[in-house]
Amino acid sequence: MACELEHGPPGVFECQLCSLTAPYSYIGQKPPDTESVILLEESYIMKDPFTANKDRFLVLGSRCSLCSRLVCVGPECSLFYSKRFCLPCVQENIDAFPREIQQDLEKRKVPAKKPVNKPRP
Amino acid sequence: MPPPRTRDSRHHDRDHRDRSHRAAREEEEEARERWDWNRPETRRLFEEAFFREEDSIRQSSEERHKFWAFFERLQRFQNIKASRKEEEEEKGPGLAKPPIPALADLPRTYDPRYRINLSVLGPDVWGSRGSDRPDRRLPPDKVAEFRKALLHFLDFGQKQAFGRLAKLQRERAALPIAQYGHRILQTLREHQVVVVAGDTGCGKSTQVPQYLLAAGFSHVACTQPRRIACISLAKRVSFESLSQYGSRVGYQIRFESTRSAATKIVFLTVGLLLRQIQREPGLPQYQVLIVDEVHERHLHNDFLLGVLRRLLPARPDLKVILMSATINISLFSSYFSGAPVVQVPGRLFPITVVYQPQEAESLAAASKSEKLDPRPFLRVLEAIDHKYPPEERGDLLVFLSGMAEIGAVLEAAQAYAAHTQRWVVLPLHSALSVADQDKVFDVAPPGVRKCILSTNIAETSVTIDGIRFVVDSGKVKEMSYDPQAKLQRLQEFWISQASAEQRKGRAGRTGPGVCFRLYAESDYDAFAPYPVPEIRRVALDALVLQMKSMSVGDPRTFPFIEPPPPASLETAILYLQDQGALDGSEALTPIGSLLAQLPVDVVIGKMLILGCVFRLAEPVLTVAAALSVQSPFTRSAQGSPECAAARRPLESDQGDPFTLFNVFNAWVQVKSERSSNSRKWCRRRGIEEHRLYEMANLRRQFKELLEDHGLLAGVQAATPRDSHSRLQQRRERQALYQLKRQHEEAGGRRRKVLRLQGEADGGSSDEDAEGTATREAGDSVDIQDVKFKLRHNLEQLQAAASSAQDLTRDQLSLLKLVLGRGLYPQLAIPDPFNSGRKDSDQIFHTQAKQGAVVHPTCVFANSPEVLHVQEPEARDKEGSRDDKDKMSSKHQLLTFVSLLETNKPYLVNCVRIPALQSLLLFSRSLDTNGDCSRLVADGWLQLQLVDSESAVRLLAAALRLRARWENALDRQLARQAWRRRDHRDEEEEEEVAESLAHCKDVVALSGELLQFMASKVSYSLRRLTGLETQNLYVGPQTITTAPSLPGLFGSSSLSPHPTKGGYIVTDFLTYNCLTSDSDLYSDCLRTFWTCPHCGLHMPFTPLERMAHENTCPEAPPDGPPGAEDATPEVPQKTSALQRPYHCEACGKDFIFTPTELLRHRRQHM
């Protein structure tokens, strides 16, 4: 089968925890087309797909500063506290984090998403 | 926030000791006031300092507004938090000792700021830009406050966008088809054709294209039966594949395309794909073809499948995915020699089916009044109110067979709704205005349910969320086609089981639902399993024409998935031959191949071509476009006298196409004068503006097609003369683009909350003009108007429209002639007793259908008198009240665009035309008696002329005009073919000369045609009875001596007609084949006659006389009933029958009678 080379995105980002995938267009701390923002971590970035503004970007994820796993920025997978930490690493070292973060994680565990109506298969 | 204090309120204090202290406080207060976040000036300064010129926040007012709203919320939130924090502060334990060195540098004290992974540069960081900038003076604490807010704002934006992305992926992964993506791709790698079968909601239409995209395919076409689906799917798929603002996913429909070089998936209509195949039979531009909704069995889809089946061996690299509901899957699979099927379960919530067959009394009531009994439907509404508490949301969708039924239930349901205040009742059918259709997507207020009364449009085309209850009447009105009468019939049928299931499924899209079937389970079991495919119930003219132009061979043997009825095919072929699109051997004629390129009815296509011949392209374009869209006149306005009065000046008593023509032109004028008011203008006249936009689009498309095919010289867009107006024009366009962008960003139409009936101006069901006005007042931009102006050159349109107002009487008559010839043989004759009947009882007869009536929207419905024969002489002659045998020169026929049978057979879009002249010019078959005073047109209309002399004269003129008209058409088509080829310079010159000659000919022909149409001859007109048509012809005769009629109509000898008797004069004219009491031998009877031109005096039969007249050398050229381009170079004495003649061609001298002479001359031609 003939496949044409994809233009634009240099690759596809995939979260190693939740396997969310999205094409990224840039890795680094200085998103292209924006001048006034600097990122505090090496991030995988795409153009914000939900707006026509060219200068709006979306950070997809980055590597965990402890285990270097590539994780998305979703709250189920990682958190940022001056550095990126994947949730498994946070759990492992929970005591090293301030109480606010600990409480945050506690809160997150309790209201596990309950399915409203289970569709018939 | 404290109200800003003004300086004036301060008053001087005498206390000196206090003064300095007070001054300091005041200064502080002043600063606080000055830097109050509520002051626009403060906000502006900070915006200028932090946002660069090109920043989205600075540019878009909406962004700015969002930011400041966020800012205010954040401040409030922090005030609350700050007070709470003070209490908690002491207990803070700090961080435990980090076990890993990497965690050692985590901030000791928590601050939400550390949780944000970005940092904002600001004036203090990049502050090297000129010191006079206001940001230098910004107080640092305020800068910090602002920066913090901005950080949180950006972080919030990130979280929001990422949340959407994650949600999107979750939803996609949760679709039933997500489990099958891999298998579909795998199967496609191994096979050329794959059938993907899955029920509504499984996600096949949106997901399969994305799987292909993700797998690296890049030339994917996905066909849809409906245009609207192309647009909405392209939107959805580009959104889901995160390229909403890119061009990887596009759509292509008749008037619009978002396709570009970067497009990898294109959604397009089946018709459009077929046209692409027509142009490039190998379809080289695609790698994968998805044919969606094959189970719906649309005409084009069925044909496409046949074309693909033939194409696949030639394109082994082309992959095809057929997508279908789980209906009759094996049919498709086996059609493509056992293509593998991937079956995907649908996602439906459980639906309870309740059978509620109508009781006998209700059925009896219905059959008595012919009106639907609404009571069974009301009972369901009551049952729902009874059983389900109003807090439990869920709307009701009722399937009815047609608009009349919707009307009947609407009335009753609204009365019920007004009483209970628990329902908002809305109709939904295709004749509603777009705005009214959109209302079904609005939401009902709390405690109130929507009740949507719909045709089967909601079965597949329109999907409404939130439906919990479905009522299925079990009926559908479908167009069926009667090939014998060439009549479309809208009839009520029981639906199929497949439709019943589809309707039921609409209740289970968002939760468990209930489906009430107003028929018995045994009825259901008796339903046909599937609906009748379209190919079995529509006219196949267009399909056959397309098949011919795609050279797919004999339509009779084409391997359709299910063959059409042979009778329909035969009718279509015959019809196309009648229309001149196919020749005797069923091959495409030049005009036929042109017609095949035009995506319109054959009739309309013909009109366009004929219009070009007579230099009437502009008006004909408008008329053709107008006749190709739904009527723009709204139903609701029909009862309104204001609307009728406002419309009246636009009405034309010539016929509906002329009224539409006037409406369109007037609308264009309104648009070019005071654009924003066109919406109001339309509303006041009960016109659905959307249809006029469609007309404009279609008109443009027709024009481009005619230009592409060389029928119309392409006109360069007139460029404004000076640079100023050019600039002006560019500015205007830019402003329009800006408006369009803004509209698109705002996301178009938002859902509104419906009003209950009785509040203000009632429920939104039977909305009057007022209601629409208030609804639309909100969005001040008329996006349709903006798009219209971007798409069309209004100046050009306006020029065409205003020149239309100056159309001369002659041009108008020519236009009518063009319409008449285009629409032929769709003719109806007024009933002879019409003049004694009420307006509403006027009836008309077509050849195949008696007792048709004009459509109520038709101009002749209100003023039928213009069709009556009202000549005083006619009344004097006989005492008879009817028009049956009335002698008059003003008999008229109606020519119509379509015949549609609902409760009555209706003639739609009628034009009145003079009977005798039209029949002489258009009839496929004209039969005469011996002296030509009696004529029968197409075997069903008889014309009896007062005297045979004028009869012969008219007939001769008609023959000549028809020949010349054909000739002009042929030349136009030849030129068209020539223009499309490449050519050399000398040819160019020839072409110019030829073009000039052609032009002159056409002008002369037009003049003669008009004169012919205006000719006054008294005659009677009537429809032959069945018995008369059976005994119409004398039949084959034993006497076979053909009259010697040299030079007549181009054939040197006349042959007897094998079945009718008489003689074949041309392919349409048969002389003396009509039976009659007296004149069986009249062809042999000669009477003395003197030629008015050459003075020749001798006994002639009518036919001989015609022959002479046609070839009389003395006749003035081009003067009817004169001769063809005669060559009068031979001076002749004409007092004797014989005279000497020197032939220049053969150089010999003869003594000839005039007829001999003509015969001789013909040898040299």
From TrEMBL, chain A:
InterPro entries: CDPF1 (IPR042426), CDPF1_dom (IPR018785). Residues 13-106 form the Cysteine-rich DPF motif domain. Pfam families: C6_DPF. Belongs to the CDPF1 family. This is Cysteine-rich DPF motif domain-containing protein 1. It comes from Erinaceus europaeus (Western European hedgehog).
Automatic annotation (TrEMBL), chain B:
Residues 185-345 form the Helicase ATP-binding domain. It catalyses: ATP + H2O = ADP + phosphate + H(+). One of its GO terms (molecular function) is ATP binding. Residues 383-551 form the Helicase C-terminal domain. Gene3D superfamilies: 1.20.120.1080, P-loop containing nucleotide triphosphate hydrolases. It holds the Pfam family WHD_HA2. InterPro entries: DEAD-box_helicase_OB_fold, DEAD/DEAH_box_helicase_dom, DHX34_Znf-C2H2, HA2_WH, Helicase-assoc_dom, Helicase_ATP-bd, Helicase_C-like, P-loop_NTPase. Its EC number is 3.6.4.13. PROSITE patterns: HELICASE_ATP_BIND_1, HELICASE_CTER. The keyword Oxidoreductase does not apply. It comes from the Eukaryota. It is an enzyme of class 3 (hydrolase). Belongs to the DEAD box helicase family. DEAH subfamily. Forms a complex with RUVBL1 and RUVBL2. Part of a complex composed of SMG1, DHX34 and UPF1; within the complex DHX34 acts as a scaffolding protein to facilitate SMG1 phosphorylation of UPF1. Interacts with UPF1, MOV10, EIF4A3, XRN2, SMG6, SMG7, SMG9, UPF3A, UPF3B, CASC3/MLN51, XRN1, DIS3 and DCP1A; the interactions are RNA-independent. Interacts with NCBP1/CPB80; the interaction is RNA-dependent. Interacts (via C-terminus) with SMG1; the interaction is RNA-independent. This is Probable ATP-dependent RNA helicase DHX34. It comes from Erinaceus europaeus (Western European hedgehog). The gene is DHX34.
